[in-house]
Protein backbone atom coordinates (compact mmCIF):
# COMPACT_ATOMS: atom_id res chain seq x y z
CA UNK A 1 0.00 0.00 0.00
CA UNK A 2 1.49 3.32 -1.06
CA UNK A 3 1.64 6.43 1.13
CA UNK A 4 -0.75 9.18 0.08
CA UNK A 5 0.07 12.90 0.05
CA UNK A 6 -2.40 13.72 2.84
CA UNK A 7 -0.43 11.44 5.15
CA UNK A 8 2.86 13.03 4.12
CA UNK A 9 1.48 16.51 4.90
CA UNK A 10 1.35 15.49 8.56
CA UNK A 11 5.14 15.06 8.45
CA UNK A 12 5.93 18.54 7.13
CA UNK A 13 7.44 21.46 9.07
CA UNK A 14 5.44 21.74 12.30
CA UNK A 15 5.52 25.52 12.11
CA UNK A 16 3.41 25.54 8.93
CA UNK A 17 0.31 24.81 11.00
CA UNK A 18 0.69 28.25 12.63
CA UNK A 19 0.56 30.01 9.27
CA UNK A 20 -2.43 30.71 7.07
CA UNK A 21 -2.32 31.87 3.44
CA UNK A 22 -2.31 35.65 3.00
CA UNK A 23 -5.73 37.17 3.74
CA UNK A 24 -4.83 40.05 1.43
CA UNK A 25 -4.07 37.90 -1.62
CA UNK A 26 -6.96 35.56 -0.89
CA UNK A 27 -9.51 38.36 -0.61
CA UNK A 28 -8.15 40.10 -3.70
CA UNK A 29 -8.57 36.86 -5.65
CA UNK A 30 -12.03 36.27 -4.17
CA UNK A 31 -13.46 39.55 -5.49
CA UNK A 32 -11.44 39.75 -8.71
CA UNK A 33 -14.21 38.44 -10.96
CA UNK A 34 -16.95 40.82 -9.81
CA UNK A 35 -17.82 42.71 -13.04
CA UNK A 36 -16.68 46.34 -13.06
CA UNK A 37 -15.20 46.27 -9.56
CA UNK A 38 -12.75 49.03 -8.59
CA UNK A 39 -9.88 47.42 -6.68
CA UNK A 40 -8.08 49.58 -4.14
CA UNK A 41 -6.42 46.56 -2.61
CA UNK A 42 -2.81 45.76 -3.46
CA UNK A 43 0.26 47.88 -2.79
CA UNK A 44 1.20 48.03 -6.44
CA UNK A 45 2.34 51.37 -7.96
CA UNK A 46 0.23 52.19 -11.01
CA UNK A 47 3.18 53.93 -12.67
CA UNK A 48 5.61 52.30 -15.09
CA UNK A 49 9.31 51.78 -14.45
CA UNK A 50 11.25 54.84 -15.73
CA UNK A 51 12.52 54.48 -19.30
CA UNK A 52 16.21 54.93 -18.46
CA UNK A 53 15.92 52.07 -15.96
CA UNK A 54 14.32 49.77 -18.52
CA UNK A 55 17.02 50.73 -21.02
CA UNK A 56 19.70 49.66 -18.56
CA UNK A 57 18.11 46.22 -18.28
CA UNK A 58 17.86 45.89 -22.05
CA UNK A 59 21.52 46.85 -22.42
CA UNK A 60 22.44 44.27 -19.79
CA UNK A 61 20.63 41.57 -21.75
CA UNK A 62 22.25 42.67 -25.01
CA UNK A 63 25.65 42.48 -23.30
CA UNK A 64 24.92 38.87 -22.39
CA UNK A 65 24.93 39.50 -18.65
CA UNK A 66 23.08 36.24 -18.21
CA UNK A 67 25.33 34.41 -15.78
CA UNK A 68 25.33 34.18 -12.00
CA UNK A 69 25.97 37.48 -10.30
CA UNK A 70 27.90 37.44 -7.00
CA UNK A 71 25.67 36.06 -4.27
CA UNK A 72 25.44 39.33 -2.34
CA UNK A 73 24.83 41.29 -5.55
CA UNK A 74 26.87 43.04 -8.20
CA UNK A 75 29.38 45.55 -6.90
CA UNK A 76 27.80 48.15 -9.18
CA UNK A 77 24.44 47.80 -7.46
CA UNK A 78 25.84 47.54 -3.94
CA UNK A 79 27.91 50.68 -4.55
CA UNK A 80 24.92 52.53 -5.98
CA UNK A 81 22.76 51.45 -3.04
CA UNK A 82 25.32 52.53 -0.44
CA UNK A 83 25.73 55.90 -2.16
CA UNK A 84 21.95 56.36 -2.40
CA UNK A 85 21.40 55.62 1.30
CA UNK A 86 24.28 57.85 2.38
CA UNK A 87 23.12 60.74 0.20
CA UNK A 88 19.44 60.48 1.04
CA UNK A 89 19.41 59.34 4.66
CA UNK A 90 22.88 59.87 6.13
CA UNK A 91 23.47 56.16 6.81
CA UNK A 92 26.78 54.69 5.74
CA UNK A 93 27.61 51.16 4.64
CA UNK A 94 30.60 49.54 2.97
CA UNK A 95 29.27 48.11 -0.30
CA UNK A 96 31.86 45.32 -0.20
CA UNK A 97 30.89 43.94 3.20
CA UNK A 98 27.70 45.54 4.52
CA UNK A 99 25.18 45.42 1.64
CA UNK A 100 23.24 42.43 0.29
CA UNK A 101 20.93 42.52 -2.73
CA UNK A 102 17.79 40.54 -1.91
CA UNK A 103 14.77 39.24 -3.81
CA UNK A 104 12.69 42.28 -2.97
CA UNK A 105 12.35 43.59 0.58
CA UNK A 106 10.42 40.36 1.22
CA UNK A 107 13.58 38.34 0.67
CA UNK A 108 15.37 40.60 3.11
CA UNK A 109 12.69 40.13 5.76
CA UNK A 110 12.93 36.35 5.42
CA UNK A 111 16.73 36.34 5.52
CA UNK A 112 16.93 38.70 8.49
CA UNK A 113 14.35 37.00 10.68
CA UNK A 114 15.60 33.51 9.80
CA UNK A 115 19.12 34.60 10.74
CA UNK A 116 18.08 36.17 14.05
CA UNK A 117 15.41 33.90 15.49
CA UNK A 118 15.58 30.57 17.28
CA UNK A 119 12.49 28.56 18.23
CA UNK A 120 10.90 30.15 21.29
CA UNK A 121 12.49 33.57 20.77
CA UNK A 122 10.23 36.60 21.05
CA UNK A 123 10.02 39.32 18.40
CA UNK A 124 8.27 42.61 19.15
CA UNK A 125 5.89 43.74 16.40
CA UNK A 126 3.89 46.99 16.48
CA UNK A 127 0.46 46.50 14.93
CA UNK A 128 -1.42 47.03 12.69
CA UNK A 129 1.36 45.94 10.34
CA UNK A 130 1.87 44.09 7.08
CA UNK A 131 1.40 40.44 8.10
CA UNK A 132 4.52 39.06 6.42
CA UNK A 133 6.71 39.69 9.47
CA UNK A 134 4.30 37.74 11.68
CA UNK A 135 4.19 34.72 9.37
CA UNK A 136 7.97 34.54 8.94
CA UNK A 137 8.53 34.85 12.68
CA UNK A 138 6.14 31.96 13.28
CA UNK A 139 7.74 29.89 10.51
CA UNK A 140 10.99 30.15 12.45
CA UNK A 141 9.25 28.95 15.62
CA UNK A 142 9.42 32.39 17.22
CA UNK A 143 6.70 34.06 19.25
CA UNK A 144 5.33 37.40 17.97
CA UNK A 145 4.68 39.88 20.77
CA UNK A 146 2.16 42.41 19.49
CA UNK A 147 2.22 46.08 20.46
CA UNK A 148 -1.20 47.50 19.51
CA UNK A 149 -0.65 51.13 18.47
CA UNK A 150 -4.26 51.90 17.52
CA UNK A 151 -4.81 54.05 20.62
CA UNK A 152 -1.77 56.21 19.80
CA UNK A 153 -2.63 57.16 16.20
CA UNK A 154 -0.76 54.04 15.04
CA UNK A 155 2.63 55.26 16.24
CA UNK A 156 4.73 53.16 18.62
CA UNK A 157 5.57 55.35 21.60
CA UNK A 158 8.81 55.00 23.59
CA UNK A 159 6.68 54.38 26.69
CA UNK A 160 4.87 51.45 25.07
CA UNK A 161 8.14 50.03 23.78
CA UNK A 162 9.78 50.41 27.20
CA UNK A 163 6.88 48.67 28.95
CA UNK A 164 6.85 45.81 26.41
CA UNK A 165 10.60 45.30 26.88
CA UNK A 166 10.09 45.25 30.65
CA UNK A 167 7.44 42.55 30.20
CA UNK A 168 9.58 40.63 27.68
CA UNK A 169 13.21 41.24 28.72
CA UNK A 170 14.58 38.42 26.56
CA UNK A 171 13.03 39.66 23.30
CA UNK A 172 15.44 39.06 20.44
CA UNK A 173 14.24 41.63 17.88
CA UNK A 174 11.86 44.50 17.22
CA UNK A 175 10.32 45.14 13.80
CA UNK A 176 9.69 48.64 12.46
CA UNK A 177 8.05 49.54 9.15
CA UNK A 178 7.79 53.19 8.21
CA UNK A 179 6.20 54.85 6.37
CA UNK A 180 3.77 52.16 7.41
CA UNK A 181 1.84 49.61 5.48
CA UNK A 182 -1.14 49.70 6.21
CA UNK A 183 -1.54 53.08 7.96
CA UNK A 184 0.70 55.45 6.02
CA UNK A 185 1.97 57.00 9.27
CA UNK A 186 5.69 57.47 9.78
CA UNK A 187 8.21 58.43 12.45
CA UNK A 188 9.81 61.84 12.61
CA UNK A 189 13.35 62.43 13.80
CA UNK A 190 12.35 63.07 17.42
CA UNK A 191 10.18 59.92 17.44
CA UNK A 192 13.07 57.78 16.22
CA UNK A 193 15.53 59.33 18.64
CA UNK A 194 13.18 58.50 21.54
CA UNK A 195 12.74 54.88 20.37
CA UNK A 196 16.49 54.54 19.83
CA UNK A 197 17.15 55.76 23.37
CA UNK A 198 14.98 52.90 24.68
CA UNK A 199 16.80 50.29 22.60
CA UNK A 200 20.38 51.53 22.70
CA UNK A 201 21.52 49.58 25.76
CA UNK A 202 19.61 46.38 24.93
CA UNK A 203 21.03 43.32 23.10
CA UNK A 204 18.18 43.48 20.59
CA UNK A 205 18.11 43.61 16.80
CA UNK A 206 16.10 46.29 15.02
CA UNK A 207 14.68 45.12 11.69
CA UNK A 208 13.74 48.37 9.99
CA UNK A 209 11.77 48.03 6.75
CA UNK A 210 11.95 51.44 5.07
CA UNK A 211 10.88 50.39 1.57
CA UNK A 212 8.50 53.39 1.32
CA UNK A 213 11.17 55.92 2.36
CA UNK A 214 11.09 57.83 -0.93
CA UNK A 215 7.31 58.20 -0.65
CA UNK A 216 7.48 60.29 2.53
CA UNK A 217 5.41 63.50 2.57
CA UNK A 218 6.34 66.61 4.53
CA UNK A 219 9.55 66.18 6.56
CA UNK A 220 12.28 64.16 4.88
CA UNK A 221 12.55 60.48 5.81
CA UNK A 222 14.94 59.65 8.64
CA UNK A 223 16.31 56.12 9.11
CA UNK A 224 16.61 54.63 12.58
CA UNK A 225 19.95 53.27 11.40
CA UNK A 226 21.26 56.80 11.80
CA UNK A 227 20.77 56.39 15.57
CA UNK A 228 21.31 52.64 16.00
CA UNK A 229 23.81 51.67 13.29
CA UNK A 230 25.22 48.71 15.24
CA UNK A 231 21.83 47.13 15.96
CA UNK A 232 19.85 47.86 12.81
CA UNK A 233 19.25 45.62 9.84
CA UNK A 234 18.00 48.13 7.28
CA UNK A 235 15.74 47.13 4.39
CA UNK A 236 15.06 49.24 1.34
CA UNK A 237 14.80 48.75 -2.41
CA UNK A 238 13.39 49.98 -5.69
CA UNK A 239 9.93 48.40 -5.70
CA UNK A 240 8.01 51.46 -4.52
CA UNK A 241 10.44 54.28 -5.29
CA UNK A 242 10.86 53.32 -8.95
CA UNK A 243 7.68 51.32 -9.61
CA UNK A 244 9.70 48.11 -9.90
CA UNK A 245 7.69 45.61 -7.85
CA UNK A 246 8.03 42.93 -10.52
CA UNK A 247 11.81 43.29 -10.80
CA UNK A 248 12.21 41.88 -7.25
CA UNK A 249 15.23 43.82 -6.05
CA UNK A 250 15.64 44.76 -2.41
CA UNK A 251 18.57 46.11 -0.44
CA UNK A 252 19.59 44.85 3.02
CA UNK A 253 22.30 46.61 5.03
CA UNK A 254 23.87 45.91 8.40
CA UNK A 255 27.27 46.06 10.14
CA UNK A 256 29.90 43.76 8.65
CA UNK A 257 29.74 41.12 11.40
CA UNK A 258 25.97 40.80 11.06
CA UNK A 259 25.99 40.88 7.26
CA UNK A 260 28.42 37.97 7.19
CA UNK A 261 25.80 35.87 8.97
CA UNK A 262 22.87 37.18 6.92
CA UNK A 263 24.73 36.21 3.77
CA UNK A 264 24.58 32.54 4.74
CA UNK A 265 20.77 32.40 4.69
CA UNK A 266 20.62 34.54 1.56
CA UNK A 267 23.15 32.31 -0.20
CA UNK A 268 21.29 29.10 0.53
CA UNK A 269 17.80 30.40 -0.27
CA UNK A 270 18.20 32.79 -3.21
CA UNK A 271 21.81 32.24 -4.35
CA UNK A 272 21.64 35.56 -6.24
CA UNK A 273 19.06 37.83 -7.84
CA UNK A 274 18.60 38.28 -11.58
CA UNK A 275 21.55 39.96 -13.29
CA UNK A 276 19.66 42.27 -15.64
CA UNK A 277 17.31 43.34 -12.84
CA UNK A 278 20.37 44.30 -10.81
CA UNK A 279 21.66 46.38 -13.70
CA UNK A 280 18.31 48.17 -13.85
CA UNK A 281 18.31 48.79 -10.08
CA UNK A 282 21.87 50.16 -10.22
CA UNK A 283 20.73 52.64 -12.84
CA UNK A 284 17.68 53.55 -10.76
CA UNK A 285 19.68 54.26 -7.61
CA UNK A 286 22.55 56.10 -9.34
CA UNK A 287 20.99 58.11 -12.19
CA UNK A 288 17.41 58.04 -10.95
CA UNK A 289 17.85 59.12 -7.35
CA UNK A 290 14.88 61.49 -7.60
CA UNK A 291 12.66 59.45 -9.91
CA UNK A 292 10.11 59.03 -7.13
CA UNK A 293 9.37 62.76 -6.94
CA UNK A 294 6.92 62.77 -9.84
CA UNK A 295 5.08 59.78 -8.42
CA UNK A 296 5.10 61.25 -4.91
CA UNK A 297 3.48 64.46 -6.12
CA UNK A 298 0.65 62.48 -7.69
CA UNK A 299 0.24 60.26 -4.64
CA UNK A 300 -0.05 63.34 -2.42
CA UNK A 301 -2.82 64.76 -4.61
CA UNK A 302 -4.66 61.44 -4.43
CA UNK A 303 -4.15 61.23 -0.67
CA UNK A 304 -5.55 64.70 -0.13
CA UNK A 305 -8.60 63.98 -2.28
CA UNK A 306 -9.32 60.58 -0.75
CA UNK A 307 -8.66 61.65 2.84
CA UNK A 308 -11.22 64.47 2.64
CA UNK A 309 -13.77 62.58 0.57
CA UNK A 310 -13.83 59.54 2.84
CA UNK A 311 -13.75 61.66 5.98
CA UNK A 312 -16.88 63.39 4.70
CA UNK A 313 -18.51 59.96 4.38
CA UNK A 314 -17.65 59.09 7.97
CA UNK A 315 -14.47 57.05 7.37
CA UNK A 316 -12.04 58.63 9.85
CA UNK A 317 -8.32 58.10 9.25
CA UNK A 318 -4.96 59.09 10.62
CA UNK A 319 -3.66 61.33 7.84
CA UNK A 320 -0.96 59.42 5.96
CA UNK A 321 2.52 60.92 5.89
CA UNK A 322 3.91 58.41 3.45
CA UNK A 323 3.35 55.26 1.35
CA UNK A 324 0.01 55.15 -0.52
CA UNK A 325 -2.56 53.85 1.94
CA UNK A 326 -5.38 55.17 4.09
CA UNK A 327 -6.32 53.13 7.15
CA UNK A 328 -9.89 54.16 7.86
CA UNK A 329 -12.34 53.39 10.65
CA UNK A 330 -15.57 51.82 9.41
CA UNK A 331 -18.40 54.24 10.32
CA UNK A 332 -20.86 53.30 13.05
CA UNK A 333 -23.99 51.72 11.63
CA UNK A 334 -22.05 49.65 9.11
CA UNK A 335 -20.71 46.13 9.73
CA UNK A 336 -17.76 46.41 12.14
CA UNK A 337 -16.42 42.99 11.21
CA UNK A 338 -13.96 44.27 8.60
CA UNK A 339 -14.02 41.12 6.47
CA UNK A 340 -17.82 41.09 6.42
CA UNK A 341 -17.87 44.79 5.58
CA UNK A 342 -15.37 44.42 2.72
CA UNK A 343 -17.28 41.49 1.25
CA UNK A 344 -20.55 43.42 1.40
CA UNK A 345 -18.98 46.53 -0.11
CA UNK A 346 -17.44 44.48 -2.92
CA UNK A 347 -20.69 42.78 -3.87
CA UNK A 348 -23.09 45.69 -3.31
CA UNK A 349 -20.96 48.68 -4.32
CA UNK A 350 -18.31 47.04 -6.53
CA UNK A 351 -15.41 48.56 -4.57
CA UNK A 352 -12.68 46.35 -3.10
CA UNK A 353 -10.77 47.34 0.05
CA UNK A 354 -8.64 45.21 2.38
CA UNK A 355 -10.05 44.22 5.81
CA UNK A 356 -8.17 45.78 8.70
CA UNK A 357 -8.22 42.46 10.54
CA UNK A 358 -5.55 41.26 8.10
CA UNK A 359 -2.98 43.49 9.82
CA UNK A 360 -3.05 42.16 13.37
CA UNK A 361 -4.29 43.56 16.71
CA UNK A 362 -5.77 47.03 16.42
CA UNK A 363 -6.82 46.49 12.82
CA UNK A 364 -10.33 45.14 13.31
CA UNK A 365 -13.01 47.69 12.51
CA UNK A 366 -10.77 49.39 9.93
CA UNK A 367 -10.13 49.03 6.21
CA UNK A 368 -6.98 49.65 4.21
CA UNK A 369 -7.46 51.65 1.03
CA UNK A 370 -4.67 51.81 -1.54
CA UNK A 371 -4.52 55.01 -3.56
CA UNK A 372 -1.99 53.54 -5.96
CA UNK A 373 -4.79 53.91 -8.49
CA UNK A 374 -5.83 56.55 -10.99
CA UNK A 375 -7.74 59.60 -9.80
CA UNK A 376 -10.61 58.51 -12.04
CA UNK A 377 -10.81 55.16 -10.23
CA UNK A 378 -10.63 56.89 -6.85
CA UNK A 379 -13.48 59.20 -7.80
CA UNK A 380 -15.57 56.26 -8.99
CA UNK A 381 -14.85 54.39 -5.77
CA UNK A 382 -15.84 57.38 -3.61
CA UNK A 383 -19.10 57.79 -5.53
CA UNK A 384 -19.96 54.12 -5.08
CA UNK A 385 -19.00 54.11 -1.39
CA UNK A 386 -21.13 57.22 -0.88
CA UNK A 387 -24.12 55.56 -2.54
CA UNK A 388 -23.58 52.47 -0.39
CA UNK A 389 -23.44 54.48 2.84
CA UNK A 390 -26.57 56.43 1.85
CA UNK A 391 -28.46 53.23 1.06
CA UNK A 392 -27.56 51.77 4.45
CA UNK A 393 -28.77 54.93 6.18
CA UNK A 394 -32.06 54.72 4.27
CA UNK A 395 -32.51 51.09 5.27
CA UNK A 396 -31.86 52.00 8.91
CA UNK A 397 -34.48 54.76 8.80
CA UNK A 398 -36.99 52.43 7.15
CA UNK A 399 -36.53 49.89 9.96
From TrEMBL:
Residues 37-385 form the Aminotransferase class I/classII large domain. One of its GO terms (molecular function) is transaminase activity. Gene3D superfamilies: Aspartate Aminotransferase, domain 1, Type I PLP-dependent aspartate aminotransferase-like (Major domain). Keywords: Aminotransferase, Pyridoxal phosphate, Transferase. Transmembrane segments: none annotated. It is an enzyme of class 2 (transferase). Its cofactor is pyridoxal 5'-phosphate. Its EC number is 2.6.1.-. The keyword Transferase applies. Belongs to the class-I pyridoxal-phosphate-dependent aminotransferase family. This is Aminotransferase. It comes from Lactiplantibacillus nangangensis.
Amino acid sequence: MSIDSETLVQHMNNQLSAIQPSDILAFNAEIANIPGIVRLTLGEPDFNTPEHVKDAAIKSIQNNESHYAPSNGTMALRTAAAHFLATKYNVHYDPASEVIVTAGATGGIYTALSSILNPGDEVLIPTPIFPLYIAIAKLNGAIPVFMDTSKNDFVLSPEQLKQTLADHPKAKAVVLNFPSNPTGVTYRRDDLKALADVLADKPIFVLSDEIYSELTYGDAHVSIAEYLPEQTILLNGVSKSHAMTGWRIGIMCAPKAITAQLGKIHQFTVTTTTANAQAAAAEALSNGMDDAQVMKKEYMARRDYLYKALNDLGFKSAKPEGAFYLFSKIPAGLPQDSMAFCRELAHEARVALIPGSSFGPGGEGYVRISYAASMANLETAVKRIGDYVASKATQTEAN
